[in-house]
Amino acid sequence: MNFFFMILLCFASQMLAYFMLPTTVALSLSSKTDKLALLALKEKLTNGVPDSLPSWNKSLHFCEWQGITCGRHHTRVSALRLENQTLGGTLGPSLGNLTFLTILKLRKVNLYGGIPKQVGCLKRLQVLYLDQNHLQGEIPIELSNCSNIKVINFALNGLITGRVPTWFGSMMQLTKLYLGANDLVGTIPSSLANFSSLQLLALPENHFEGSIPYSLGRLSSLTYLSLSSNNLSGEIPHSLYNLSNIQIFDLAGNKLFGGLPTNLNLAFPNLEVFYVGGNQISGIFPSSISNLTGLRNFDISENNFNAPIPLTLGRLNKLEWFGIGENNFGSEGAHDLDFLSSL
């Protein structure tokens, strides 16, 4: 977006918040700007319901309001955290006036409407949680101005639409991206591989299609990958088996085919959870998992795997879930289910 236009947008949102409140307050600068912005934000968040957020009133200093944290060296809002409340409103444009904000968590507070463009004014923002609400519409491109952001969580809104923005790849500080359980479509952009610091990528329960980008194998810091319950097809890229830090690997409920590597224990030495059930994957059982001593959950059900399953599975003393149903096990010979006695 044009930088000059972004400045105008932030300035316009600030003026809008000022005009909504008395002129004597609007003329105050610095920390009073935050108080003004919060009062305007409250009006939108609560949909004007007077009993909501009762501590957000003019008799208390705004740094003492519920969910508000101010900086140690200045009385500017550095964090806004509200969770598990029924606010029932929207995110207003005055949000963009909280320019010292580094943490914004509005989780499960019954928000509606879209994510305002003014979020792009929050240049110091590092953590953004808007999950478990009813937000809708596309992810605003203005968010790309928040170059310091490390965590984005828009999961479990259900109505966030469009495609995963390709400009996400320019947010070089990002470590965690949660977009699960929404209405996103299209392919998974290969530009996500530009997140050199990304540790968690969670895109389950959307409508993604096409193949898994080979480039995701460059995410060397990744410990958590979930692309489950989409419409992804093709083979699992061999590049993913270069992600040696992976602990959670979940590609269940897609249309993936092909086989699994014989050396799964070498590819994922830190593996704890492995889900690829509900696909069209075939081949022999990956017996190398017997060497994954940290494995807790393993599910390859509803595929086309066949025996033999090794007796050495008894080594997996941390195993809590082992799903192999609806494959071709038990049809090759009298002894191919003997492994059960080792568990």
From TrEMBL:
Domain of life: Eukaryota
Membrane topology summary: Single-pass type I membrane protein
Pfam family for this entry, one: LRR_8
Main localization category: membrane
Subcellular location: Cell membrane
Residues in Leucine-rich repeat-containing N-terminal plant-type domain copies: 32-70
Stretch forming the signal peptide: 1-17
SUPFAM superfamilies: L domain-like
Stated name of the protein: Putative non-specific serine/threonine protein kinase
Organism this protein belongs to: Medicago truncatula (Barrel medic)
